[in-house]
């Protein structure tokens, strides 16, 4: 924990003013250094009252994900230990390195901003301040093949977390997207450290457009944010806490029973259900109507001749417009 984080933790724990002398002694720095860090916290959006005789008192905190603000909200194993970075290239890359070094299951990497965020198929992922960009280290006792349903499972946790707030329901778009009225709100990228028959670790990266009010021109028609949907900003620490609690609950059952117990619940949230789509997979294109998913999280497609096919992955586009949405070619953008 940095000196500034220690100072913030002291202010958060105090019910009243804390003198500069007390903070100086507790942190082992000069009172001038304390004042400089107080000013830096004010610049970051913390409202801190100051009195020459009484010291400092924290009045209001910004929508921030610093450890002293978020760690008290962690309810279980997911989120411990907590690694926060103002800026990283990719939280998945940081989490994979931590996993290789032996990070325990539940370790969490969170960044305020990603400069090299990515989605499926290596697409760039727009990751400015105001979103939730995080990666979770998992060590499931399953085969590598079984992890194919993990992005599908985790999308349920994300929608559960969003449902904890008073805003319209979001939907899932197989295999790894979170959408609202056809526009992308978030996505999930799962990467493995595995051998042919053994999973050493899984890193589950989740990106969610939360308090973002504008997007680059190429994404304006294909992406939206929870703030735009709700009409007001959401608490990112509270949302992250809710997602992690749901993810831990789902994951625990999934490790024992697989995806089958969640199939019907997933289908209720699936925006593709009953829609005519095209799936591009391995260079070939399949067309048909989405009948749902199977017990392993594979998409079930009914072709025009009635044949059923199952897909582990692929790029899905609508042949007909989804409700209130975009052109079919627009549905491929990552945000």
UniProtKB/TrEMBL annotation:
GO terms for molecular function: ATP binding; biotin--[biotin carboxyl-carrier protein] ligase activity; DNA binding; transferase activity. One of its GO terms (cellular component) is cytoplasm. It comes from the Bacteria. GO terms for biological process: protein lipoylation; regulation of DNA-templated transcription. Acts both as a biotin--[acetyl-CoA-carboxylase] ligase and a repressor. It comes from Thermodesulfitimonas autotrophica. Its EC number is 6.3.4.15. Biotin binds at residues 90-92, 114, 118-120, 184. Keywords: ATP-binding, Biotin, DNA-binding, Ligase, Nucleotide-binding, Repressor, Transcription, Transcription regulation. Residues 20-39 bind DNA. Residues 64-255 form the BPL/LPL catalytic domain. It catalyses: biotin + L-lysyl-[protein] + ATP = N(6)-biotinyl-L-lysyl-[protein] + AMP + diphosphate + H(+). This is Bifunctional ligase/repressor BirA. Belongs to the biotin--protein ligase family. It holds the Pfam family BPL_LplA_LipB. SUPFAM superfamilies: C-terminal domain of transcriptional repressors (SSF50037), Class II aaRS and biotin synthetases (SSF55681), Winged helix' DNA-binding domain (SSF46785).
